[in-house]
Write a structure and sequence with these properties.
42% of the residues lie in helices and 16% in strands. It is built from 14 helices and ten strands. The strands form two sheets. A seven-stranded parallel beta sheet has the order 3-2-1-7-8-9-10, with helices on both faces. A three-stranded antiparallel beta sheet has the order 5-4-6. α13 links the parallel β9 and β10. α1 packs across α14 and α12 runs parallel beside α13. The two termini are 15 Å apart.
Amino acid sequence: MAFGGGHGLAAALEAWRRITTELTAVVTVADDGGSSGRIRREMPVLPPGDLRMALAALADGGARGRELAALLQHRLGGTGVLAGHPVGNLMLTGLTEMHAGDTTRALDALGKLLGCCGRVLPMADVPLDLVAKVDTTDPDDPERTRTIRGQGAIAATPGRVREILLSPPDPPVHPAVLEAIAAADVVSLGPGSWYTSVLPHLLVPRLRSALASAHARVVVVLNLVPQPGETEGFSPEEHLSVLQSHLDGVALHTVIADADWVVDRRGLLSAVRECGAELVLAPVAELDGAPRHDPVRLSAALASVVGAR
């Protein structure tokens, strides 16, 4: 199973689907910007954007599945109230209403329509807000550390994130998520926005407790480059150090990184060993040199980890 959100989780899912069809995505529900933000402010539903992207990544690979996935991702044009909404966000919101507010049933129904090769689940049953302590970059700012609320605002605020919190701090989690964790052989974290897509899963007490008691191998896929606003200036070792400070009993088994994007291999190896994990250096980036994970190459690295279990 794979934890995360946004484009990072989509890349991980596209990699995992090449290895297994017994796949579950557990997706963040803290998005408050764009179409998702508009929908969650107007409707009593989970923000659908990251959930939609995960469904599209798992859609059937045939012509019909690709066409439906493209429809899911298509953003409406124009200048009216519907402008900018992806069709899939509206479909998922409508299905949630039809299923009396049960997002999990709506996701299963839409996944069946798309012929998904796995299941998509929300990491919590209520919309979440992220709250960050951010060190500002303005030397004349009398309040050098500010409290920023909201995923969109955190991503757009210049400075270094020092702490991330969830509101509410102990949200309800659907039993299907906890059952999937207990049954999983492998759980992957990352790649993705470290503070707003990866770490939030470890901030949910019920998710973290389930991971701590699970028998699954926990695999971390490190980002290739720091993300402006969230992890600007972070080395791979710092990404790992921040993650480790949020584990609270969750054991790491493997860390995957691309050797070509690691400056200090010895430092990273030392940091990985401090976590009690093994380091796998493998070519997982796009061949064109872009700082994005290539699903085919990432699947090869993940397959080597699964085979080593």
